[in-house]
Amino acid sequence: MRFNLTTRMAAILFASCAMAGAASAQDDFPSRAVTIVVPYATGGMSSTLTQLIAEKMQENLGQPVIVSNQPGANGNLASGAVARAAPDGYTILLGTPSTLTLNPHLYAETPFDLFEDFDPLGLYAITYSVVLTHPDTGYETIDDIVAAAQAAPGTINFGSSGPGSFGHLAGELLAALGDVEMTHIPYPGGGPALTDLMAGRLSFIFGDTIALEQVEAGNLDAVALAGIERIAQAPDLETVAEQGWERLDFTGWQGYVVPRGTPEEIVVRLNEALAYALEDETLGQRINELGADVADPSPEVFAEVLRSNYDKWDQVVQDVDVVIE
Amino acid sequence: MDILTELSANASMGLAVALQPANILYCFIGVFLGTLLGVIPGIGTLAAMTLLFPFTFQLEPTSGLIMLAGIYYGTNYGGTIAAILLNVPGTPGASVTCLDGYPMAKQGRAGVALLMTAVPSFVGASFGIILLMVFAPVISENALRFGPAEYFSLMVLGLVAACTISSGSAAKGLAMVVLGIAFGLVGSDIYTGTQRFTFGVPVLTDGIELVALAMGLFGLPEVIASVRGAKDVKLTQKRVTLKSMIPTRDDIRRSLAPMLRASGIGSFFGTLPGTGGLIASFMSYSVEKRVSKDPSRFGKGAIEGVVAPETANNAADMTAFIPTLTLGIPGSTQMAIMLGIFIIHGITPGPQILTQHPELVWGLIMSFWLGNILLLVLNIPLIGLWVRMLSIPYSLLYPGIVVFICAGVYSISNSVADVIVMVFFGALGYLMRYLNFPAAPLILGFVLGPMIEEHFRRAMLYSRGDPATFIQSPISGVILAISAVLVIWTIVNAFRSHRQRRALNEGINQV
């Protein structure tokens, strides 16, 4: 399904040849290959979905759409590189709340400015987090976890997929809001943290909805959905808002941005291709299988999400007092 | 009987995956390329894997890993061919095979030697695969008992074993492990995100890329060395006919018991972290020599001396997957690369892998069987081709290899910086080669060092800073005790052999 090496090479070759004489290409955009930069390694959810979207966009645009994985520094490397790329529509960046709206607050230095360097192209998926515990703990609500931390200070451990991750901030925010002591135990990725939760070493984690499989298998308990409204994937699962903890809303998203200054008609054209891709049924199914929902791809919606998320994470980072040097 | 039904269910699930036409093809390509690179002296298993893994990028994870595994065990077969015909081990694991394989070739028995390495290799591998199939699920089911303290202890054992049981100088091995750990520290601290030893270079924030490091240390020095002085090779036999492969009844009789013993020895050393094929073949060779009624035949073309190391080598290659797949702990350097490539494909080996990706795991395991059968069937008629491969001038071969290395490293994260990192390690690797420092312990230190740190700190976080946690857990305590015994044994042994050597006034060269 992926591009093989030769097509990719051919596309790159073609792209570099075309670059020489493409100054006036605005009217017939795209006249060469479009690259989507993914700030993560291959294999993850965003990378897999972008591969599928790229294939569909290629159909619509009539030019190759290449996915380039450029992992590094929690997404900062790729975001910084695209921020400096030419605003001609040929370079697109994949963004998540972490890479675009959280990193600027979390890191002492980020190589881009969200509003100065990027324009929204459109969202493609909304992702969710769930609060998971081991069945033996007997926690049924967020309040139960806080009560347990109050009753026996220094016994609660929560895992995350690394410092500055959603899981880390969510756990710290819960501790701050509940005014209790909890120990953060980071893991290199969500999988190993899930294993230690199943072994009963961790008290809880804020994990991906993909872990709901383990809840169904009886290995884990889901305490709440870390969002405001219930979702179709787990209609019986109470939300943190229902339990009175609306600030623990860790609903995420995945979308694309372009370097700021990209001509509007080009953004419109790319957005058309994105909307076309999202109409595909198999793609929609795949997104649902991964525990996410298809998003409204309009740039206006994304602009609003970026603005509100940026302020939200600013507040969260101040509340939990986490900085990464 | 429950285990048997489960085993056959897993086996048939795996076979269904492995026997998909595409996967058969990739398995074939893997073992073919593996043999090809294995035949070329100096391109060991590691170099072959690092050279060819970029080709697996574009494949589905299952096909990619099947192909890569084929390269991994295919090189051994190729290495043996060079060992027997040239007295040059194509892979380090084949160096023991030289001891008796080359004398056999000189006696005009190269054909028999080649057959009697191919068949026992298959037997050893099969034995290893069966153990893998039985133990992988058992360990996976019990893996939840393995917490940070247990992981820490297991990896300490691995590093201790790598330093003490390795074949060369223990001091040099230790030095390289420590250097590897130092390189492993570069990057973001996984507990705080703080940058360590990155010197403000953005590409180092996620640490040094394992594959760039491995290609630099194993691939480039080989090429540089060949520029300095590639010798033309002298083949003992230009042609190996099928007829010359038929072993005598005596050959077969002598081979049966060593095959069984070596399967056991090889399987054991394969699972032990930090050891692997080379140690396994050394061990089984020395065991055969010890139990033989006439040890003086060894080194002069004894068939047992060819059968035993090859069986052990291949058994170890297979069982090495047990800790790698089920616990995510790479037992050998090759497995460290394999682990890295699993992760590049988005799959994290560990206790969950059997439940999350059963098709992939069982498909991969069953493909080992397919691959070994292919190797057996392929190599007998293709020996002529391999022999001719050995006479390609290096001046044509190696420049092409450099291009592959650079393209491969670049393709990992589309970054030129990784290529620069690779060149740096190429220079270092060449220097190490010049000074006779082994590169394998460096890679093991590089991979295991940060993992040891990670689990040590996690265990200390859980215990709220109490180091007793490492002895309170029975599993962890026992493993640490074994490590301690190993260290003491090595020191005592080194001391004793030093005295012996002085007394004899000559080194003990043989195993």
TrEMBL record, chain A:
The lineage of its organism: Bacteria, Pseudomonadati, Pseudomonadota, Alphaproteobacteria, Hyphomicrobiales. This is Tripartite tricarboxylate transporter substrate binding protein. Gene3D superfamilies: Bordetella uptake gene, domain 1, Periplasmic binding protein-like II. InterPro entries: BUG, Bug_dom1. Keywords: Signal. Belongs to the UPF0065 (bug) family. It comes from the Bacteria. Residues 1-25 form the signal peptide. Pfam families: TctC (PF03401).
UniProtKB/TrEMBL annotation, chain B:
Residues 24-444 form the DUF112 domain. The keyword Membrane applies. Keywords: Membrane, Transmembrane, Transmembrane helix. It comes from the Bacteria. The chain crosses the membrane at residues 23-53, 65-86, 112-139, 151-168, 174-192, 262-285, 327-348, 360-384, 396-427, 472-492. The keyword ATP-binding does not apply. It holds the Pfam family TctA. Signal peptide: none annotated. InterPro entries: DUF112_TM. This is Tripartite tricarboxylate transporter permease. It comes from Pelagibacterium lacus.
